[in-house]
Amino acid sequence: MPEPLSSLIIEPAVRAALTEDLGRAGDVTTEATVPADKTAHAVIAARASGRIAGLDVARCAFRLVDPSLKIAVALRDGTDAKPGDAICHIEGNARSLLSAERVALNFMGHMSGIATATAAFVEAIEGTGARITCTRKTTPNLRAFEKYAVRAGGGVNHRFGLDDGILIKDNHIAVAGGVTAALEAAKARAGHMLRIEIEVDTLDQLEEALNGGAHAVLLDNMDPDTLRKAVEINKGRATLEASGGITLETVRAKAETGVDLLSVGWLTHSAPSLDLGLDIVFD
């Protein structure tokens, strides 16, 4: 199980989502059809196989609507579920339960989908020594949630923002006047705690980046043969990250070249939501 997200991150996002959903008049459907004093027992269950993520976020949705709701977790984040497996049980006021349902499921389904996709990539490269990492290609305002989901799937996180690591991309190189010029400028500006990574398209650029003292090198859109040559050239000097169009079908071959990391933007920008559902249980 990954380290939990802070409530300081979870609560504002969930509160905003509930405000969006409940609007100005609240849940008019539930208020019209469900007696105010009615209680219910509901279960959130998997309708497809996958890796679970986002339980604390779902729990926050229910508790913000009604702190008296009782929530019992059956499967924790980072564990796998099969169709029909109960993930958590919620008991209490039926109106509260139904009003929080969609926000809770939206977060959990999205995060579990990312965790499920990540787990598939991690399994595909098992035994190679490489690791799967995400990118900054995330949904605005949901980056912390999506990167948490990657961790729940067994992956690792790339930088969280523009302020926690220097990653010199092709456009930076073009404006700076070349690989060496960009690295020299970055090293002059960076503090001793800030690592510098640079993107390269060719093996000649890789040589230049290594000679310039890059801590990590992003090998962009290279085929396995070229990646293998890059590993030989590197000789362990810098962390090597393969990136660009990596799929489940191609990831194993690229991991077997000896690179350290494989970054997959698809995990956070295109992974399908895991199908989860909430149903009322009649005991």
Give an account of the 3D structure.
The protein is an alpha/beta fold and 283 residues long. Helix content is 43%, strand content 19%. It folds into 2 domains: 7-113 and 272-281, Aldehyde Oxidoreductase, domain 3, CATH 3.90.1170.20; 123-269, Alpha-Beta Barrel (TIM Barrel). It is built from 11 helices and 12 strands. The strands form 3 sheets. The chain has a 6-stranded parallel sheet. The longest helix has 31 residues, at 94-124. The mean pLDDT is 97.
The dominant shape is: elongated
Strand residue percentage: 15-25%
Assign the CATH architecture of the largest domain: Alpha-Beta Barrel
Q: Quickly name the level 1 CATH class of the largest domain.
A: Alpha Beta
Q: List the helices and strands in order.
A: HHEEHEEEHEHEHHEHEHEHEHE
List low-confidence stretches: none
* Average pLDDT figure: 97
CATH topology heading of the largest domain: TIM Barrel
A few lines on this structure:
This protein has 283 residues and is an alpha/beta fold.
Strands, helices and their partners?
Layout: H1 7-22, H2 28-33, E1 39-46, E2 50-51, H3 55-65, E3 70-73, E4 80-81, E5 86-93, H4 94-124, E6 131-133, H5 143-152, E7 166-168, H6 170-176, H7 179-189, E8 196-200, H8 203-211, E9 216-220, H9 224-234, E10 239-243, H10 251-255, E11 261-263, H11 266-269, E12 276-281
Parallel strand pairs: 6-11, 7-8, 8-9, 9-10, 10-11
Antiparallel strand pairs: 1-5, 1-12, 2-4, 3-5
Helix pairs in contact: 1-3, 1-4, 3-4, 4-5, 6-7, 8-9
